[in-house]
Amino acid sequence: MAVARVTRKPTNPDRTTHQRAHHPGRKKPLPAGQPREWYESHNRRLKAMRLTIALLDAGVYHPSTADNTRIRATADRIGVHRPSDTTCRMVRALIRYGR
Questions:
Q1: More exposed terminus of the chain, fewer Cβ within 10 Å: N or C?
Q2: What is the pLDDT of residue 11?
Q3: CB–CB of 71/91 below 8 Å?
Q4: What is the pLDDT confidence band of residue 22, given thresholds at 50, 70 and 90?
Q5: What is the maximum alpha-carbon separation in the chain?
Q6: What's the pLDDT at 12?
Q7: Are 48 and 91 contacting, i.e. CB atoms less than 8 angstroms apart?
Q8: How deeply is 79 buried, as exposed, middle or buried, from its count of CB atoms within 10 A (0-12, 13-18, 19+)?
């Protein structure tokens, strides 16, 4: 009876596991040729996601406890520019629908 042998592709000894891993924090350039509104909404969504993650890490799990003051204080704490009212609404929506 033949036995199948599992073989692995040889790894490159010059690259560490850290270099091969995906880095979600690494920024990539945005695609060119989009209208300005696309870039604005894209950056607004990114900021809202960063703020939502920071609020969830701080223990804010309900949109009713995430008022504009708390969201803006979190933005100051994590080093993000002061969010607009629209971005604050988006943060509350992400908290609400992420449950």
A1: N
A2: 56
A3: yes
A4: very low
A5: 71
A6: 56
A7: yes
A8: exposed
The residue type of 3 is: V
Tell me, what amino acid is at 73?
Answer: A
Q: CA torsion, points 13, 18, 24, 26, in degrees to nearest 10? A: -80
Tokens matching residue 91: 């943060």
pTM: 0.69
DSSP-assigned states of every residue in 66-99: --HHHHHHHHHHHT-PPP-HHHHHHHHHHHHHT-
User: Burial, 89: exposed, middle or buried (Cβ in 10 Å; 0-12, 13-18, 19+)?
Assistant: middle
Residue 21 tokens, joined: 């891993």
pLDDT, tens only, 35-69: 999 999 999 999 999 999 999 999 999 999 999 99
